[in-house]
Design the sequence.
């Protein structure tokens, strides 16, 4: 009888539990200006126009894209791709220099209400000295 009670309890409650997982309630208190942030460290495609998708400029999911990493003497990871974007694209479709392609990307992002930021230092950088001088 005890096993029947446990089985009946599971049979009655399992659909209720699963309903919460399959159809979760959407939050009702999310502000209208809520921002969704993508932190881009590595690029899934390192050559061709698909890099633009990897950078998130066409993503409907994110409002803010942060590229990693700026260091005082060099750039690394996704920011290295950004700094050398024209050579990675392999086409002049979006511009014929890094600056032109970067302008195209920024214009596209801004037209879609997105912002682009860079992340500085990472785990390996140790900023020191005047923070204003470092930022400049």
Sequence:
């Amino acid at each position: 009888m005890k096993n029947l009670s446990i089985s009946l309890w599971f049979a009655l409650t399992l659909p209720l539990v699963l309903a919460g997982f399959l159809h979760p309630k959407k939050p009702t208190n999310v502000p209208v200006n809520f921002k969704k942030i993508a932190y881009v460290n590595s690029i899934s495609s390192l050559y061709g126009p698909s890099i633009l998708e990897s950078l998130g400029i066409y993503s409907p999911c994110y409002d803010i894209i942060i590229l990693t990493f700026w260091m005082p003497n060099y750039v690394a990871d996704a920011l290295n791709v950004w700094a050398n974007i024209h050579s990675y694209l392999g086409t002049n479709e979006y511009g014929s220099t890094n600056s032109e392609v970067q302008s195209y990307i920024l214009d596209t992002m801004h037209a879609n209400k997105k912002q682009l930021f860079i992340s500085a230092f990472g785990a390996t950088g140790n900023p020191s000295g005047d923070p204003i001088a470092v930022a400049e």
